[in-house]
UniProtKB/TrEMBL annotation, chain A:
It is found in: Cell membrane. InterPro entries: ABC3_permease_C, Lipoprotein-release_system. Coiled coil: none annotated. This is Putative ABC transport system permease protein. One of its GO terms (cellular component) is plasma membrane protein complex. It comes from Donghicola tyrosinivorans. The lineage of its organism: Bacteria, Pseudomonadati, Pseudomonadota, Alphaproteobacteria, Rhodobacterales.
Automatic annotation (TrEMBL), chain B:
Belongs to the ABC transporter superfamily. Macrolide exporter (TC 3.A.1.122) family. The keyword Nucleotide-binding applies. Pfam families: ABC_tran (PF00005). It comes from Donghicola tyrosinivorans. CDD domains: ABC_MJ0796_LolCDE_FtsE. PANTHER family: ABC TRANSPORTER ATP-BINDING PROTEIN MG467-RELATED, LIPOPROTEIN-RELEASING SYSTEM ATP-BINDING PROTEIN LOLD. Transmembrane segments: none annotated. Keywords: ATP-binding, Cell inner membrane, Cell membrane, Membrane, Nucleotide-binding, Transport. GO terms for molecular function: ATP binding; ATP hydrolysis activity; transmembrane transporter activity. This is Putative ABC transport system ATP-binding protein. Residues 14-243 form the ABC transporter domain.
Amino acid sequence: MVSPLDRKMLRDLWRIKTQAIAIILVIATGVMLQVMMSGLVASLTETRRTYYERNALAEVIAPAVRVPETVLGRLAAIPGVARVSGRVVGSALIDVPSDPVPIQAQAVGLPESGVQDQNIVFLTAGRLPAKNHRDEALLLSGFAAAHGYKIGDRIDVVMNGAQRRIRIVGLAQSPEYLFVAAAGEMVPDPARYGVIWMRHSSLASVYDMTGAFNQALFTLTHGASEQAVIDAADRVLKPWGGTGAYGRSDLVSDRFVSEEIGGLRTMSRAVPPLFIAVAAFLLYIVVSRIVQAEREEIGLLKAFGYTNKEVGVHYTKLLLIIAVAGAALGCLLGVLAGRAMIPIYTTFYNFPFLVFRPDPASFAIGALASVVSASAGSVFVLRRIFALTPSEAMRPPAPADYSKTVSLKGAVGRLLDQPTRIVLRSLARSPWRALGLSAGIAGGMALASGMTTIYGAFDRMMNLSFTVIDRSDATVYFYSPLGEKAAYELARIPGVIAVEPFREVAATLKLGRKEHRGSVSGMILDPQMVRAIDDQLAPIHLPDQGLVLSQALADILGAAPGDMLTVDVREGRQPVLEVPVTQVASSLIGAPAYMQMQALNRAMSEPNRISGAHLRVDAARAEAIYQRLKDMPTVAGVSVAENARASLQKLMDQGAGSARYIMGAVAFIITFGVVYNAARIAQNERARDLATLRVMGFSKSETLFVLLGELGLITLVALPVGSLAGYGLSFAIARGFSSELYQIPASFDPFSHGFSAAFILCAAAISGLLVARDVNRMDLVSVLKSRD
Amino acid sequence: MGGCRVKHKDRLAFVTRGLTKSYGEGRSTVHALRGVDLDIPEGEIVVMLGASGSGKSTLLNILGGLDRPTSGTARFRDIDMGCLSDEGLTKFRRMHVGFVFQFYNLMPSLTALENVELVTEIAENPMPAQRALELVGLTHRLDHFPSQLSGGEQQRVAIARAIAKQPDVLFCDEPTGALDSATGRAVLEVLDQVNAELNATVLMVTHAANIAGMAHRVIRLVDGQIGRVEVNKTRLPPAEIEW
Ligand SMILES: Nc1ncnc2c1ncn2[C@@H]1O[C@H](COP(=O)(O)OP(=O)(O)O)[C@@H](O)[C@H]1O
Ligand SMILES: [Mg+2]
């Protein structure tokens, strides 16, 4: 038999059902976010691992200029190497007729034997290139999709300076090319970079590699040291122009994937807990109100001889039911939402498959957070109640003492009518009660304004990046560094308005035990197009000596001005430089390091070399300019600002950044729940007073005014407080959304705060209407007779 | 409770000596009780009379273990109540005491039967909840909620709730205060019957002097002190009480 106490609990639950549902939803959305986000992180990590394993992605990659096949034996003999193979990889340009800019690509050799044992491609359509058909090739699926290529299509490709026409016989994905980005491009874009696979023999003849290879792939034995293999491979390949072996995690594609997953992970750790905290706070407020309203019943139970423990357990059960229901619903929704996101992420990450695997820890965290906050809330409140003797708790509800409240005499007082006085007095009488509700609404306001600020911050990041930091229209990259006169050649192209040469040097930057594989950008003195800027958005004058680090890079290395960095250059003579950090620049995309071009070239012992140039062009003649560039044999690629901007936007909207939309929605749901609950609490607590007013002859609207006036004031107080908290919160959220790929700058955004305030006022109005309906229907006799 | 036993030879339910209770501090102190010495024998109906504010409820609350005196001693049978901890007082109420209040104080979310079961649930030797409601003549309203019952019916549920555990002492604070004469008399009859059948000591606070006729003993409180104690030679049956 269900005990009467339990039955009382169930009926109490039923009595507060709308409120309970609102709280359950608030908790559920918070938990949902947690479960979904950490589930996605777990799923992506697991999918990547499985994909790499199934398709035998090499663990060490060693590029070189030209290595005879006979050297493979020595590479295989390196301790810790389980498998090694050599292949030909070359850069190429794809001429896409519809596209004025030549598109950079990589040509990759497939084993002549037809048996792939490392970096196995995943065919999404068609077949592998056949023997003796030297023009057959596979094309990267993402690129094919972006340009509408199908099996059987022919495309023109420039490889090693010669134009060839190849035939697409299959479309493929590869764990090596989950994300592709052209050289110098910060943001991956499947349309801007192609990969073609051809038989080894076909490529060998094109790139003069017959009997040789220019890239070795290694799979290691279990437990082998990656660094040891890298060092050994570098030693073996040194005579053959080895440019430095690197591990899987330095693979361009893997770095993007890691950044994206890392971004999601940071976010899933930073943001959902904030949401759950607000939900928990709300639960606490509601719980304390429910318990407070039961004061009399608690006294009564104690008078019968129920122990504090029994009473405590009774109320805790009630709260736990709400908390557990919220957590359970949240887990369920989280799994469903995670499942719904799978297709988006599978496409975005170019995984051939993706299994949503919820993270069990997130269930536990979500459940625990809500349960703990519910019990903490009840313990906190019950403790005060327990301290009362039963006789005190039982005393008929003491007539409220209004004697100590605000004096409403004098000129101001005369202006106020009776209902207004009631509103003011009741607020003044129990300011803590009102402040509790205000704090709840402020929490909602903080979430809502914090999240909308992030929306604005994404746009701000885009605008700053493309109008303040990089103001060029296009950037040209050469195959290899050229003399300065190459810049004049670019300037002579009709329609080119300005040319700003730069030197970009691949390098590993090290400070202590931290290191970053990236590059150093050499810039002309006082550049006009691409600039390093400080946090006031003013251009930084680059020093004659030393490096200016972007904030992102300074964070990675833990570097500050004055630190001496080791710059391990990965091209040319591969010098190792010691360079001081002179300043930290604010950057929004990537993690660049800036240096004066002159100084960089001097350090490289390669005077007057440039890697490419930023251009400003006449928009009307842009097409013709890009056509000219396409035909220049020295040009490895052209990146058009407009395209770069579009791919960044896409990245932010489909990658980790897309979580902001879900979070925004959740923030607003929670906010509405908070406001609605505040209204309900106010109504419940005032029911007796409101009924008494009606009995005394106040009209319905006058009575409502008392309730809604109070609610209105509580909301108005909450807005500025919440706005302030939201401002602080936006920095925490922005940090969660920032990664090495891009950094989100938080700042005060009046629109976001105005919008959120408007939303809360609307929510308050709607809640007010819902509550008003109940107040108007109130049965006076029953309200006065019974406690509620 | 074991440690709080005292030896005695009388047949008294309650003994108090020098009981005081004051509320507040300084100039605004209210002395609700100013030294109450009182003996209440087992098995009697004791009516406590006094003007409003004379300290009746305060005394009742202290004897019932709902509150503690500021000074003085109170003894229930062989238990020194002042020595009891909060848990001890809780246990005392659970084992020995039933309460009936002026405003019924039923749980609004429980039916009549469930309100009674609330107590039988935790009592050591309760009668069936149904039987308690039968005693107060409410067998036909078992499944009604308090909001569906009249004031007298609610009070009878409250009495059923109080007697269901077969208490040694029944405390009633103005049990008929909110009732008309007919229902009031019915309630008094139930109390009389409980006293006779269960042999429970009944301590009833009222300001209606005529109710005193049904008591074995009448105690008058004046300004927080015992004014006069009368023992009725002949008791009136509740039905004959003038209202
Ligand atoms: N919790 C309390 N705080 C302050 N004064 C109290 C409290 N409880 C009772 N009193 C005061 O003690 C006196 C006696 O109260 P009470 O025992 O309730 O009187 P009665 O029941 O005889 O009407 C009254 O003056 C009352 O105002
Ligand atoms: Mg009283």
